[in-house]
Design goal:
alpha/beta; TIM Barrel; six-stranded parallel sheet; 11 helices
């Protein structure tokens, strides 16, 4: 198997993040307390990522990631290294159901662009250890996350539309940089769509002074413009999430309100979707899939708890989804990563790997090896 000949996503795939080992947690604490250098931290991260990649291979995955082991957050760490974006300490964290994150946020303070970025080197390391039989996959936040989460200086960009052109050009440069580093499987992670799934989310947009219909169109443009110049042999997928922090969630609701946009207008190669519980609704919105080259990755295995799902029930649900999208376009994965932030979900590493093996085994049963 070589990167140039593999079509992703795979029948049994995964979103990307994994629980941080204790050695990483301890090393990061020491680094922020000035007890070890950045080089020493990187050495420890490298050692753990090598172990992690090997565990992914042993579990039967065909795509391997660095597990986000170098990151505190799935999105802020990437966005704040774009030109014109900076981190700041917010008054409060992001509110999930029953729990709040650390107080951290980002803001746009100058013209947004992409010149150099530490995650290009992060990908290069992953690429160097992936081997010839596995595809290195890298994940970055969707451009929509800056539109949705970034505190925008009105002196720089008066409104979201003004930011769009510079933001998408920055992403085009980033995508090309990852490609030049060898990346052929890139994933955009995106929680912004979940705001459309419920009346509560719609109201939050309105409270921020945003028009939901305008934002929906803006989000489609941001994604499509950002990936418009990707090389033909580069696969770009999107993971659409309702929030994932310490096994809790942020929003509920099915895909129906924006199904025509997500399934009928986005020019990605595949969509990783949450379908692990009743909060996600049924498969009916998949009727809006209007392309025979769009892969739908069913997130039927939860990453939030360690209990393994009944295999027959998962196969039955795949069959239900196949009444809307052909089996040939369907894949299986956990609904999200295991650690969208460094805190991680509430399950053990052993349970995490059992989940991954569960995905691979069910996928092999359904589609073959």
């Amino acid at each position: 198997m070589s990167i140039s000949t593999v079509t992703a996503p795979f029948r049994g795939d995964h979103v990307g993040s994994f629980l941080r080992p204790e050695s990483i947690k301890e090393a990061r604490k020491k680094y922020f307390n000035n007890q070890i250098s950045s080089d020493e931290l990187t050495t420890i991260e490298n050692e753990e990522i090598i172990k992690l990649v090997e565990k992914q291979k042993q579990a039967g995955l065909k795509s391997v990631t660095d597990g986000d082991l170098r990151r505190e957050w799935w999105h802020f760490d990437f966005l704040e290294s774009l030109d014109g974006v900076e981190e700041y300490k917010a008054d409060s964290g992001i509110q999930f159901k029953g729990v709040e994150t650390k107080a951290r946020a980002i803001r746009v303070v100058d013209t947004v662009d992409f010149t150099t970025h530490p995650m290009i080197d992060h990908y290069k390391f992953l690429h160097s250890i992936a081997g010839d039989q596995h595809v290195p996959k890298f994940t970055i936040p969707s451009p929509n996350m800056l539109l949705a989460r970034g505190n925008i200086n009105k002196d720089v960009y008066n409104q979201e539309e003004d930011l769009l052109a510079d933001l998408t050009k920055a992403y085009q440069k980033a995508i090309q940089a990852f490609y030049d580093a060898g990346c052929r499987y890139l994933q955009l992670d995106d929680t912004s769509w979940a705001g459309f799934f419920s009346d509560e989310g719609i109201q939050k947009m309105k409270d921020r002074g945003q028009d939901p219909d305008k934002m929906r169109k803006l989000f489609v443009r941001a994604v499509n413009d950002s990936i418009a110049k990707r090389p033909d042999d580069m696969v770009i997928t999107m993971h659409i999430c309702r929030g994932n922090f310490r096994s809790t969630y942020m929003t509920s609701g099915d895909y129906e309100a924006v199904a025509s946009a997500i399934f009928g207008q986005l020019n990605v190669n595949g969509l990783f979707l949450e379908f692990d519980d009743e909060r996600s609704g049924g498969f009916e919105p998949l009727r809006h899939v209007n392309r025979d080259d769009l892969f739908i990755v069913l997130g039927l295995i939860t990453s939030k708890t360690g209990e393994l799902e009944n295999k027959d029930r998962i196969k039955q649900r795949i069959e239900e989804a196949a009444s809307y999208v052909p089996y040939e376009q369907l894949c299986l994965s956990p609904q999200c990563g295991f650690a969208s932030t460094e805190e991680g979900n509430v399950l053990t590493e052993e349970e995490q790997w059992a989940k991954i093996r569960h995905v691979v085994e069910i996928a092999e049963d359904v589609w073959g090896k």
